[in-house]
Write a structure and sequence with these properties.
The complex is a heterodimer of chains A (317) and B (310). By secondary structure, chain A is α+β, with helices and mostly antiparallel strands. Helix content of chain A is 66%, strand content 9%. Chain A has 13 helices and six strands. In chain A, the strands form two sheets. Chain A has a four-stranded antiparallel β-sheet, with no helix packed on it. A two-stranded antiparallel ribbon of chain A has the order 5-6. In chain A, strand 3 and strand 4 form a beta hairpin. The two termini of chain A are 21 Å apart. In chain B, helix 11 packs antiparallel against helix 12. Chain B is flat, with a radius of gyration of 23 Å. Chains A and B meet through helix 1, helix 5, helix 6, helix 10 and helix 12 of A and helix 2, helix 5, helix 6, helix 9 and helix 10 of B.
């Protein structure tokens, strides 16, 4: 039954579109909220029944909250709830999604470029180039992906208080390029044995000319299918690194009493929003952890479904 | 320098074996996995050492006192201790993942799948969920049970005890189990469609015996590849799960040795980090070599293709 569902491209595409539209709507709603709700500390709130409440506030809670910076009370609806400092999670996630998605795009481009270059080296390179590319691919295959990602982030973006976008993206790109390289090399291999390819070789077409004219038209659809899967993988890696304390945003601030402080982001980024997960879990507060995690997982799922839809459509054709 | 020396030793072993097999080509099929292993080991060693020389500590970090003592121990002691812990955790996780993943796929094939089709849907959902969400959900569940009933079902943070190993192994093995199930199911489906299976049925062999004696055996080399991928997935998410549950194995100590953790004042221990990454990578590479060897034993055609020198 599941396999039958996974072979229906229209259904998968529709499900993916619904998820993308829902997330886009959520992020736009978050952006429309004033910036203060993602920066200021709302340290105490009062419900309509007059009861006092301290952050983190639950989802769909309307409160009259006290802003520390202005010293005044404001009424606010927390759609997704708040973090430990009383800041609106919807606004935080929406603003944090921008650097995170930018990072994902950079990492994705990096993965595709590295993968295609390595695949071309294996498929079309000389004996030496092919050997070097295969050895490097073997080395990368020998590393557990998360351990390699941690070491690469630390090496390529060494200032932990202000991680460089490009260094971080490159580190994430260098972890998962092997699948793209394998795909490219396999496609090149499949094309090379075709009669038209043999004829083209006999007529003198070689190297990048051969790649551009004869391989690329066959490779492009396969890469288009691979892109959403890689985007999903990069998003999950972003979440995992964020949880482990490797994120793009700047230094967090610690808010609360001695031994019970919350780690609050100063420049919202989804990875950083996940970095304080343990503090919340130990206090049995699920909202500030699960909301960013679920948003990240939903975007990853939407990409995964898109990839499945494209793959299923290609098979049916 | 020790790591670079080790890398050179690995390279020398690889080149010596290549030289030896150029005189004795018959030995190539035996020597090939060792040569690959030695090349991989040397590459992993030198790459990790090189990358770690750039690393800097994360300010605002400090592990717990118990872990601080572990971090300040000599590298071989830490590597030995954490390897044993992680191997125990991974062993348990891969055991239950194989039991559930492969076992359910075989069971579904034996029962002609009609009764157990919802398992496929569950596996598809689990496969989509990232490990960190699964870990969060498990810990939320533990906190929920403790908060509402007073019953503590979680182990102490940083502790090594059966409860800790159980929960960490559950989370670590969930996605590999789903992966193994989905791939084994597909592979068994492909095998069932082959002519020899139809012949076995036509001869009157009971279906369950056809599955267990013929179908599984025929699909075993490909199932072993799927198993290897699920193990790769598992060791990949080891740092995350160990860090989440505070289990002081290879993964958690690796994160701590990078200077990450709650509190103040940690430093990067580059030598330890290199050792931990290399140990994890070597576990992966050795398991891969063992699986490759087993595959060649199960399917002799693979051995024949390996006889041709590279």
């Amino acid at each position: 039954m599941v396999n039958r569902l996974l072979n229906r491209p229209t259904l998968l595409l529709a499900a993916s579109a619904v998820l993308f539209v829902s997330i886009a709507g959520l992020l736009i709603a978050g952006w429309l909220e004033p910036r203060e709700w993602s920066t200021g500390l709302e340290i105490i709130g009062k419900t309509s029944s007059g009861q006092w409440s301290i952050p983190p506030y639950g989802p769909l809670t309307r409160l009259n909250v006290y802003a520390r910076a202005t010293g005044q009370f404001h009424s606010h609806l927390f759609v997704l709830g708040s973090d430990g400092g009383g800041r609106d999670l919807l606004a935080l996630i929406a603003r944090g999604a921008v650097p995170s998605l930018l990072l994902v795009v950079c990492a994705l481009v990096g993965r595709m470029l590295l993968g295609v270059a390595a695949g071309v080296a294996v498929g079309l390179g000389s004996g030496l180039t092919r050997g070097v590319a295969q050895v490097v691919a073997k080395w990368v295959a020998g590393f557990p992906y998360l351990a390699l990602a941690i070491v690469l982030v630390q090496a390529l973006s060494p200032n932990p208080t202000r991680r460089a976008l490009l260094g971080f993206a490159l580190a994430m790109a260098m972890v998962g390029w092997r699948d793209v390289a394998e795909l490219t090399a396999n496609r090149i291999q499949a094309v090379r044995v075709q009669q038209y390819a043999v004829a083209a070789k006999a007529l003198g077409t070689q190297g990048l000319g051969f790649f551009g004219r004869h391989v690329l038209p066959h490779l492009r659809p396969a890469l288009m299918i691979e892109v959403p899967f890689q985007a999903s993988a990069v998003l999950v890696l972003l979440g995992e690194l964020g949880y482990l304390g490797f994120y793009l945003g700047g230094n967090p601030i610690f808010w609360g009493g001695e031994g019970s402080s919350y780690k609050l982001p100063t420049q919202p980024e989804i990875g950083q929003l996940l970095s304080g997960a343990r503090d919340y879990i130990l206090r049995e507060q699920w909202v500030p952890v699960l909301m960013p995690a679920l948003v990240l997982a939903t975007i990853a799922l939407a990409f995964e479904l898109l990839g499945l839809a494209l793959r299923s459509r290609e098979r049916s054709q | 320098v020790t790591w670079v020396n080790l890398s050179l030793v690995s390279l020398i072993i690889a080149f010596s074996l290549i030289l030896l097999t150029s005189w004795l080509p018959r030995l190539w099929s035996t020597a090939r996995p060792i040569v690959v292993l030695a090349f991989q080991a040397s590459g992993i060693l030198v790459t990790t050492w090189l990358l770690m020389s750039f690393a800097r500590p994360v300010p605002g970090s400090n592990p717990f006192a118990r872990e601080l003592a572990l971090l300040s121990s000599p590298v071989p002691t830490v590597l030995l201790l954490t390897s044993v812990r992680s191997l125990l955790l991974m062993g348990l996780a891969i055991f239950w993942a194989t039991l559930f993943g492969l076992g359910t796929a075989i069971l579904m094939q034996s029962l002609l799948r009609k009764q157990l089709f919802p398992i496929g849907a569950v596996a598809a959902v689990i496969w989509i969920l990232p490990t960190f969400i699964l870990a969060i959900l498990v810990q939320e569940f533990q906190a929920f049970v403790a908060g509402h009933t007073g019953l503590v079902i979680a182990a102490g943070f940083g502790a090594v005890n059966p409860v800790q190993v159980f929960w960490a192994a559950v989370v670590l093995g969930v996605r590999p189990a789903a992966y193994l199930f989905r791939h084994s199911e597909q592979l068994l489906d492909l095998e069932v469609a082959l002519d020899y299976v139809r012949t076995a049925r036509a001869k009157g062999l009971p279906w369950r015996k056809v599955v267990t004696r013929h179908v599984v055996r025929g699909a075993l080399p490909s199932i072993l590849s799927a198993w290897m991928n699920s193990f790769r997935l598992m060791i990949g998410s080891l740092p995350l799960v160990e860090y989440f549950f505070g289990y002081p194995g290879l993964g958690r100590v690796l994160v701590l040795s990078m200077g990450v953790g709650p509190g103040l004042g940690a430093q990067v221990r580059g030598d330890l980090a290199v050792g931990l990454v290399v140990t994890m990578a070597l576990i992966l590479v050795v398991v891969e070599a063992i699986i490759g060897f087993t595959q060649r034993r199960v399917d002799p055609r693979l051995s024949e293709s390996a006889l041709v020198p590279a």
